[in-house]
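Minutes, methods subgroup
Present: GH (chair), OT, SY

1. OT presented the first of two proteins processed in the latest run. Sequence and structure tokens recorded below as shown on screen.
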Amino acid sequence: MAVVKKIIYVVIFLVVLVYGALFVTQNSQSIALNPVLLPAAEYSLSTVVILAFSIGGLLGMLFSLSMYLKSKGQTVQLSLKLRSAEKELSKFRTVVVKD
């Protein structure tokens, strides 16, 4: 099963690599870009598009990481509260009820 999984990953990687190479060759025209903090220059269209998607993906992962860490912290806090409540409940279960 692990061999099949590796073969599938290799095939997917090769397909993405071929599509990337086709994208770069089909979009090789230059465009003038004037970034705010960088000097104006001409870049290939494929470079600009790939950089834009890469930066967007990295920013998305960064924001997702912050949300994940926040939820992980809430989970830790709630598990501590649960543990405390379970200890308190076990104390009450051991107390003898007097009538």
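2. SY then presented the second protein from the same run.
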Amino acid sequence: MLKPILILAFTVAAAAQTSVAGDWDMTYSTPGGPRTYRIKLKTDGDKVTGTVQRPTGEVPLTGEIRRDSVFFTYSIVYNDSPLAMNVAAKVAESKMTGSIAFAGQMQEALTATRVPAKP
């Protein structure tokens, strides 16, 4: 009886890991007001890659999945200097809630909603 339970647990874990793949609209606060960006996530096991679509162009992101959470980092140029953006969010169905840290100096709340797939 233990064997079917282990298989089910593995299947559920694998499904949770792939559930972040796709397009998301991510919103967070900044001193200049709320910002919303489209993020495109791809998964390979527990690894996450993708892009953040910003007005200045796309920037790559990399990260990982741990249980029901996703963690990723990307870098932007702010005032002619690179600025690391670190995201940590819990994923539940088609929503993410968490935080974004700006170069480890400031942290703000973050939400994201999955963009429905086009038929």
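Chair's summary of item 2: The beta strands are 22-28, 35-44, 47-54, 57-66, 69-78, 81-92, 95-102, 106-114.
Next meeting: continue with the remaining queue.
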